[in-house]
Request: fold
Amino acid sequence: MGSADSPHWPKASVSAAIFRGRSVLIVKSGKPAHGGRWSLPGGHIEAGETVREAAAREVLEETRVTIQLGGLVDVVDVMRRGTDGELAAHYVLAVFHGAWRAGEPVPGDDVIEARFVALDSLDSVTLLPGIADAIDKAWAFARKDGRYDI
Reply:
């Protein structure tokens, strides 16, 4: 599984479904692997950083939006394979939910677009596989969480 020169997998990463009313914050990455599709803001956990700190930092870096982070929604494996079937990437992704607190989405970091989209309009954008389900699950968690109004 990979050569001695290949990166060590899996990589720890985070994402967050951030809600403002009945809208969710989504981003379009400039990374070729994402193919112009939309996703939740997120990225790698840095050494010495907690999972929650990483989630809040990534949202701020990618969208310039200030949030109140809620709870953990799920932990998922994201695996990408090359055309030869060999593992190209493996991320263990901690998905959180949270609420918007301040700022309008502005693309930052490696993001080319960032915006809030109404939950009932998500079919108007092309999401990465699994993202619609993650948003649905996060919305259910967020509505049950009494720490903030959404």
